[in-house]
Each structure stands twice: as structure tokens, then as C-alpha cells.
């Protein structure tokens, strides 16, 4: 196992597990390692005694015969995040004597699942928390689900005439629908359509900001930003509305400088810049009411509280304070009213509420099978040399030299095999000896202060690859696409010191389908310390903070479809208890095939015909033929992932 996690095995405590996996650091108060060595969920951090053992959730899922992998959604966590953001704004607004209100919206692109949106709307109702849509399909959903006349519906993204008409339908239904102008021509279209229909719109202008966010999404601001109006266009847009007698429709100024902002400075700068634009527009006579500071509130995925791309160097409270105090300061200097504040935080609302539970279904060891390497009479000299090296290896000799020799023999053996000098059997024995030598060298170095670089890399090359029943492309697409770090933790066995190290590979036929970056002891490591896995007993890993984007952006690579999902609520009366409120079935094979234009029922008939033909020819017994036909249909209707339950 890696040097960093070497702790005295007998003195291992839950605190050590906590230090290694950092659960409390990224858990946001919702996750902890319990005294029993299982990962626990605390659905509402103010009620610390209410805790759910994830192992108990897994047992329940198994009892219900629901197949893994499974997305576990904690609706209490989602509600708690909505309440927390709204309460934090309310508190800071009161403390600051700020005169505007907070009118947040949830951008549904971050997780459009109906149950997620419904829960957010419900939890946000007391705060008039609204929704944001960035496309026509999202707008159609938002129109149906955001029915509170006091909350905002914010529309971003590029728009066509239908999109604008749908927004105006929202106005007819008495909603506060704000059409945010992303490019100038949208405004001319909006003016034309709203006049034709005789419906007054609410207009927002998105500003292209000079203030840049850092991190992965910094391209969302600056002159080459894809969305927004530059300063001259903002002035032109305001004047156009004035000329058309529609000044009063201009109510909101919007910006969004990128998602997952790691640096609080960027937020302060952008708030300041937007406050100046807002103030000037107000002084030009436009009665703007809202400033929308967009999304970007980050998540500390790696628990480092740093400016690393997967982290953030501020708390929610600091973020809120910087928005409110920053806005107040500029407005007071300019003598303009404090605007209502809108945020479009998506990631911060949803990331914690769901995780993926996957079963470890195999272990791939680099040294594979161990052949018998005892002496034979005609052994080739390369095999003899390797055997001698293994035999005389001890802590007292020059280990680095042994490492080099072994590596050289192995390379020579590979060449010799290709030149037909040694046999397959001899090559296999040399390989077995090589890995034995490497394991020993690593072992002898374990308590030394200086470890050469090659030997350090043995940690990784000797580590196992754990085969997990899931697809990165479906369940953790950002870890593949943009190197996003997501916490991975064994669900059980954390009460004992880890016994092994490994990286994860998924079940797709794609060598990119792997996870080999983990946050271990607050640093990036290529292997995950693993507890003992008992053969024959299922073992589960949790992939956490998947509620934002990961849940909905996955693809069907290899035709692995959407996951089975369970929705968990805690019981008020029993602090240890929970119930599965809903089971949402994942994609069936039939479903993913039909998305790709197959006709599963016709396929079943075709395969039956083929089987019948073999039955007629006497190659399959009639009774067997029926079984094969049923089996094919059973698999078509089944789950796309590995069936480890054999039910
Ligand atoms: C994606 C997006 C958001 C959400 O950003 P988060 O970082 O997830 O909070 C908000 N507003 C706009 C305009 C976006 O494009």
C-alpha cells in the first residue's frame, strides 16, 4: 500500500479513516464515517443525531431485489441545501441592512430529474425560490413546474420565436418570466413578438463581464464569451426599449462568469463590475429591479478548501456576504436603490444529494497467475538469471541494482521470445519471478526514508485494478471528460486499516473507463486504499457528490443506460430509520436498443425463428428451445449492467 497511508495497523482508528478519505472535508456536514466503519449520511446537519448508515440502505436495496449499480438520492439533503442557501441570504441581508430581497432560482440543467426539480420547488416555496431554463425543452418543464406567481422564472440560452412565445405564455399565466437577452437580435425579436401578441415581457440583459472567473470555466466571461452583450450593446438595448415605449420592461441585469469558481476574488470583482453597470443604468432612468449574479458557487470536491479546480477557497456564507456587501457598497456610493439579488446556483444545491453505489465485481492483479518457477534441467539462461535474482534478494543487498537487473532481464526475455529463443512457458515463468522480485523490493523499501522514483512508481504498477459494475461515461462523465475529481469511498470496512491499494476500472470496453485519481489525505493519489474484501461477499464503493451534472449528463457508451434509483427519506420519529420512498427503474436493454433504432420485439421474434429452425433440424431439443427463447426475452427486458444477483 502507498507510503502515505501507512499507519500502525493495530492502532488504526476511525479518525485515521477520516484523515485518509477526508469524508468530513468534502461531505459538507452530510457525510461521515461512523464508529462502525461504515459511511453514514446525516440528512439534516442541524439534526446531527439523525443518521442513516449507507450499509443499511444497501441491505434494503438488496432486500427489495433492486440490482446494482444504484443511484441513491437523499431528498432531505436536497431540501436542506435549498433552505440553507435561502436562510444564509436572509441572514446576511438582515445583518447588512440590505434593502433588496433574495430571489434565487435553480438552473434545471444541473439536474433536470423531475423529482429533483419538484423537491427543490417545494423546499423553496416559503422563500419564493424559482427556476431557470436554458433551452426550449427546459422552458416547457419550468412553465409546468414553477407555478408560484411570486418566484422568478429566468430564461437564459439562445432563443427562437417559439421560445419567446412560450415565455409570453408564462406572462399570460401570471408568472414573473424574465427573458434574458444573450445576443442583440433576440431583443428585436422579443419586441416584435410581444407587440404582436400584446403581452408585456420582463427583459433581462446579460452582460459580458471583464471580471474573469478562474478554473475550468473561465471562458464564460471576457470578450470572447459565448453569451452576453458588451457595454455598447447594453446601452443600445436599453435605448431601443425606451424608443419602443418599453423602458419599464427592462428589470434585470444578468451575469455568469463560470461554474465551480475556486476563487472568491473573482466573485467580488464581478459583483463590483455588475453593480457599477446596474447603477449607471438606473441613473440613465431605467428602473432595474434585479441583479442576477448567475451560478458558480463552488463545491469542495477534494476537501482541500483551496483554489484548486476541484475546490473552493470560501464558504457559502462568505460567498453570500461578498455578494450582498459588495452590491450594497457600490449602490450606496452611487445613491441608487439596492436591487433584489438573484443567484442561479445549481451545483451547490444538488451535488451532495446523490451518490452512486457500485459493487466491486473483480480484482485485476498485475502479476496475475503465479506459475511454478522451480528449476528445470534445460532452463534458458535468462530464466536462470531471473531465478537467481529472486533467490538472493534481501534487504542487505543493493536493491536499486536488483530492480534494474530484473527490469533488464524482463525486457531481454520479451525480445528473446519474439526471436523464438525462449518458449511461452519460459516467458511466463520469467514474468512470475519478475513480479515476485518487485513485490519484495517494495516491501524492503517500506521503512526506508529514501525511496528512488522507480520504486515509488511500484506502488501504482503493483496495485490492483478493481473492476466495478458501472460505467464512467454514464455515472461520472466529468471524471473522464474534464478530469473532475469525485470522492470515492468504500462503504464498509473503514474501522480497520486498509489492506490493499487499487484504482478502479468500469465495465465498458473502453480503456478510458477508469478512475485513477483520488483525494487521499488531502492530496491527489493514483490509488485508493481498500479494506479487506471477503471472497464471495459483495463489496460496495460509493461515488459521491454526483448530484450536479453527473446524474444527467451521462451517455450510453456501450449501451449501458440509466441507473436504477432509490429515493431515500429519513423518519422523523426514529433517528436511525429511513425509507425508500420511490424506486425508479433504470434503462432496460430493450429501451437502450430502441433508442438506437432497433426493434426489440421484432428481434425476439427473429431469434425465436432461428431457434425453431435449429429445433426442427434436431440440433436443439424442443424443451431447450423454449428455454433459450425465454432467456433471450428475459435479457432484453433486463437491466443493462452486470447481473451479480442471478435472479
Ligand atoms: C450552468 C449555468 C448555471 C449554473 O452554474 P453552477 O455553477 O452549477 O451554479 C447558472 N447560470 C447559467 C447562465 C449557466 O449557464
Number of helices: 23
Annotated CATH homologous superfamily of the largest domain:
Alanine racemase
CATH topology of the largest domain: TIM Barrel
| Portion of residues within helices | 40-55%
Number of strands: 23
Low-confidence stretches: 1-5
Task: Tell me the radius of gyration.
Answer: 30 Å
* Silhouette: globular
- How far apart are the termini? 36 Å
Quaternary state, please? single chain
Proportion of β residues? 15-25%
* Class based on secondary structure composition and strand pairing: alpha/beta
The CATH top-level class label of the largest domain: Alpha Beta
Q: How many structural domains are formed by the residues?
A: 4
The overall average pLDDT, rounded, is: 94
Attached small molecules: pyridoxal-5'-phosphate
Summarize the main sheet.
Answer: 10 strands, mixed
CATH architecture descriptor of the largest domain = Alpha-Beta Barrel
Amino acid at each position: 500500500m502507498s507510503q502515505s497511508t501507512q499507519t500502525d495497523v493495530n492502532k488504526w482508528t476511525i479518525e485515521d479513516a477520516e484523515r485518509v478519505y477526508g469524508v468530513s472535508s468534502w461531505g459538507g456536514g452530510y457525510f461521515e464515517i461512523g464508529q462502525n466503519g461504515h459511511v453514514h449520511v446525516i440528512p439534516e446537519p442541524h439534526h446531527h443525531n439523525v443518521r442513516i448508515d449507507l450499509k443499511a440502505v444497501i441491505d434494503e436495496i438488496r432486500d427489495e431485489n433492486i440490482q446494482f449499480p444504484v443511484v441513491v438520492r437523499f431528498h432531505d439533503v436536497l431540501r436542506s441545501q435549498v433552505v440553507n442557501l435561502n436562510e444564509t441570504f436572509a441572514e446576511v441581508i438582515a445583518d447588512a441592512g440590505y434593502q433588496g430581497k433574495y430571489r434565487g432560482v435553480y438552473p434545471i440543467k444541473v439536474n433536470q430529474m423531475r423529482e429533483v426539480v419538484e423537491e427543490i420547488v417545494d423546499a423553496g416555496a416559503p422563500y419564493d425560490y424559482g427556476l431557470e431554463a436554458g433551452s426550449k425543452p427546459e422552458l416547457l418543464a419550468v412553465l409546468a413546474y414553477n407555478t408560484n406567481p411570486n418566484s422568478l422564472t429566468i430564461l437564459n440560452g439562445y432563443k427562437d420565436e417559439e421560445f419567446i412565445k412560450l415565455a409570453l405564455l408564462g406572462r399570460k399565466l401570471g408568472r414573473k418570466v424574465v427573458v434574458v437577452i444573450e445576443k442583440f437580435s433576440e431583443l428585436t425579436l422579443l419586441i416584435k413578438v410581444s407587440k404582436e401578441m400584446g403581452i408585456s415581457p420582463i427583459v433581462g440583459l446579460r452582460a459580458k463581464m471583464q471580471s474573469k472567473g478562474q478554473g475550468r470555466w473561465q471562458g464564460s466571461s471576457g470578450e470572447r464569451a459565448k453569451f452576453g452583450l458588451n457595454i455598447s450593446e447594453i446601452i443600445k438595448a436599453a435605448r431601443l426599449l425606451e424608443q419602443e415605449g418599453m423602458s419599464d420592461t427592462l428589470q434585470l441585469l444578468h451575469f455568469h462568469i463560470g461554474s465551480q469558481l475556486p476563487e472568491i476574488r473573482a466573485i467580488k470583482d464581478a459583483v463590483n463590475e455588475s453593480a457599477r453597470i446596474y447603477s449607471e443604468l438606473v441613473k440613465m432612468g431605467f428602473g432595474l429591479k434585479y441583479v442576477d449574479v448567475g451560478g458558480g458557487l463552488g463545491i469542495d470536491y477534494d476537501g482541500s478548501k483551496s483554489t484548486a479546480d476541484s475546490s473552493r477557497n470560501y464558504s457559502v456564507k462568505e460567498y453570500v456576504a461578498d455578494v450582498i456587501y459588495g452590491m450594497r457598497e457600490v449602490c450606496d456610493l452611487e445613491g441608487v436603490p439596492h436591487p433584489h439579488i438573484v443567484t442561479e446556483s445549481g451545483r451547490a444545491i444538488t451535488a451532495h444529494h446523490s451518490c452512486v453505489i457500485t459493487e466491486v465485481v473483480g480484482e485485476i492483479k498485475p502479476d496475475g497467475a503465479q506459475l511454478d518457477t522451480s528449476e528445470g534441467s534445460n532452463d534458458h539462461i535468462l530464466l536462470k538469471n531471473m531465478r537467481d535474482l529472486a533467490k538472493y534478494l534481501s534487504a542487505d543487498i543493493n536493491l536499486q541494482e536488483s530492480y534494474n537487473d530484473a527490469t533488464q532481464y524482463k525486457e531481454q526475455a520479451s525480445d528473446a521470445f519474439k526471436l523464438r529463443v525462449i518458449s511461452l512457458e519460459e516467458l511466463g515463468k520469467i514474468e512470475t519471478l519478475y513480479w515476485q522480485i518487485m513485490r519484495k523490493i517494495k516491501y524492503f523499501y517500506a521503512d526506508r526514508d529514501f525511496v528512488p522514483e522507480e520504486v515509488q512508481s511500484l506502488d501504482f504498477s503493483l496495485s490492483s485494478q478493481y473492476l466495478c459494475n458501472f460505467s464512467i461515461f454514464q455515472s461520472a462523465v466529468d471524471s473522464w471528460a474534464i478530469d473532475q475529481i469525485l470522492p470515492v469511498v468504500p462503504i464498509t470496512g473503514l474501522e480497520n486499516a486498509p489492506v490493499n491499494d487499487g484504482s478502479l476500472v468500469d465495465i465498458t470496453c473502453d480503456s478510458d473507463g477508469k478512475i485513477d485519481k483520488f483525494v487521499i489525505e488531502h492530496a491527489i493519489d493514483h490509488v485508493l486504499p481498500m479494506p479487506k474484501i471477503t471472497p464471495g461477499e459483495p463489496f460496495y464503493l460509493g461515488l459521491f457528490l454526483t448530484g450536479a451534472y453527473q446524474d444527467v449528463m451521462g451517455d450510453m457508451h456501450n449501451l449501458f443506460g440509466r441507473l436504477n434509483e432509490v429515493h431515500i427519506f429519513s423518519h422523523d420519529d426514529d433517528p436511525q430509520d429511513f425509507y425508500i420512498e420511490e424506486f425508479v427503474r433504470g434503462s432496460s436493454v430493450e429501451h437502450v436498443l430502441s433508442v438506437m433504432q432497433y426493434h426489440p420485439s421484432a428481434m425476439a421474434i427473429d431469434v425465436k425463428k432461428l431457434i425453431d429452425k435449429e429445433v426442427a433440424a434436431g440440433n436443439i431439443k424442443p424443451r431447450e428451445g423454449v428455454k433459450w427463447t425465454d432467456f433471450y426475452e428475459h435479457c432484453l427486458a433486463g437491466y443493462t449492467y452486470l447481473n451479480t444477483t442471478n435472479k
